[in-house]
Amino acid sequence: MIVSRRIVLTGPGIAWIMLLLVIPCALLLVNSFFERGIYGGIDYIFTFENYVRAVDPLYAEIFWNSARVAGITTLISLALGYPAAYCIALMPKRRQMAFLILVMLPLWSNYLIRTYAWIVLLNGEGLINRSLIGLGLIDAPLPLLYNDFAIITGLTYAYVPFMILALFSSISKLAPELREASTDLGASPLMTFRRVTLPLTLPGIAAGSVFVFVLSIGNFVTPDLLGGGKRTMIGNLIYDQFLTARDWPFGSAIAAIVIGVMMALLTIQAVLVNRRDREEKIA
Amino acid sequence: MSRNPIQAWLSTHLFLVYVFLYGPILVLVALSFNRSGMPNVWTGLSLEWYGKLFANEKIISSVGNSLFIAAVATVISTVIGTLLAMGLEERRPRVATEALIAAPMIIPDIVMAISLLSFYSLIKLTLGAHSVILSHSAFMISFVCAVVRTRFKHFDRSIIEASIDLGASEFTTFRRVTLPVIAPGVIAAALLGFTLSFDEFIISYFTSGPSSASVTFPMQIYAMIRFGVTPDVNAVATIVMLVSFFLIFLSQRINREVEA
């Protein structure tokens, strides 16, 4: 009775996700082992060729560049996000919510429009270059747009809120008594941070970092609009294989690798958090 | 004593982070009222760009398409997602089920886009507004489900049993007991889903096909900004951001009222 009722309730949702997410992703994996048809379709002949091609230096470099850009974005988000999350966590409970909503709000405005704002700010005639020239700091406009700097700025802008939220949930769980005890025992603020706060908020750092890294490495819009349409990141490469080069099997193979890397990172993070939880319980 | 300088530094840092988050948005809003429309010359206040916006048929029709797609996808995903949340809250679901339901929220959108395109092409589904609606509903269900489930956190299950003991049918119990309790969550979830669908770009771009009836608003924006600064976009950006913020604000308010 209870089982059947549960199936009636969850059945449609699970079936919907199976049909429109699991099956399409499985299909992607299957397609990645076939050959490309002469006219852009798929020839159902089994091959590993797509994966062999993916590690070709030409494409390996795109993977490496994506990982580098995503890695730098993650580090900058962490550096910006940690003190911000820490500051909010120190506030009285009543005020925290308002400050967190203020962090989340930009996430709910259109992503393309937020990215466009950076085209306006960073271009040669843009606000930042003109201000710097106006202040006499530079003579000629800096090349701020259509390069990795612009991509990293755009990605950090888009994803730093996720980092702050992940860090906040970890930092706010920390009992203030722990820090006070450390100070009472004569530790300097820096020492307390390094030996008490930082290790205990590691799960938040891991969660936020994995989240930002995963979102950044698979991004298409930001490298496309702020990177000047050069084929520099995996997202653009996948896009090209599907809509320009029409090599779906190869595009599928690259997407499969991205999902593989993503799942590995999420698993590592989950294991880290689990171990931490168990250690805390024992302690 | 050593606390105060640290506190001051943290507060300054937080303030600068907010400047970073809101500065670019405010620049666009300011430019939308600039007569020249360009970021480098301020030629005075003007509503000219807003007038031009409403005369731009491409933008207006893309907004219409997006509203239609978002509305239908919201109805589908709110119904299915709410049922899913109710089912999951009856008994603690398995980890695999949780992972399956979270998957649409974390999968990179470009991967979801190409996998759906491959799938639709395999089953020979003609692309158009309907395929975009299907695609959107797939990820919206997860978000709806997550929001509705937060509503069940403080839900006292015994009132359902009480209702059934008192002779109410399952449906009456749902309509008179469960629904009123979770309604704010359902409305908040629907508003969130609607916003997500309205703003979604990549999945629409891949699964919409060549028809002009399926050019969504973000696709139109993308076409406009692809090649650099486009003053027309500032006014659109301002309106869209105001509407999004309002919907999210509304969704937050509705979902909190009962708790208070």
Mind explaining what this structure looks like?
The complex is a heterodimer of chains A (283) and B (260). Chain A has 283 residues and is an all-alpha fold. Chain A contains 13 helices and two strands; from the N terminus they run αββαααααααααααα. In chain A, strands 1-2 form a two-stranded antiparallel ribbon. The mean pLDDT of chain A is 87. Chain B has 260 residues and is an all-alpha fold. The interface between A and B is large, with 85 and 81 residues.
SSE blueprint:
The complex is a heterodimer of chains A (283) and B (260).
Chain A: H1 2-31, E1 34-36, E2 42-46, H2 49-54, H3 57-90, H4 93-104, H5 111-122, H6 127-134, H7 148-171, H8 176-184, H9 189-200, H10 202-217, H11 221-226, H12 234-244, H13 248-282
Antiparallel strand pairs in A: 1-2
Helix pairs in contact in A: 1-13, 3-7, 3-10, 5-7, 7-10, 8-9, 10-13, 12-13
Chain B: H1 3-32, H2 48-55, H3 57-90, H4 95-106, H5 109-122, H6 129-151, H7 158-165, H8 170-199, H9 202-207, H10 217-225, H11 232-257
Helix pairs in contact in B: 1-11, 2-11, 3-6, 3-8, 3-10, 4-6, 6-8, 7-8, 8-11
| Sequence of secondary-structure elements of chain B | HHHHHHHHHHH
Quaternary assembly: heterodimer
Count of domains of chain A: 1
Give the overall shape of chain A, derived from the CA principal axes.
globular
Cα distance spanning the termini of chain A = 43 Å
**Overall geometry of chain B:** globular
List low-confidence stretches of chain A.
none
Elements of chain A, N to C (H/E): HEEHHHHHHHHHHHH
The CATH homologous superfamily of chain B is termed: MetI-like
Question: Portion of residues in helices of chain A?
Answer: over 70%
Derived from helix and strand composition plus strand pairing, the structural class of chain B reads: mainly alpha
- Sheet having the most strands of chain A: 2 strands, antiparallel
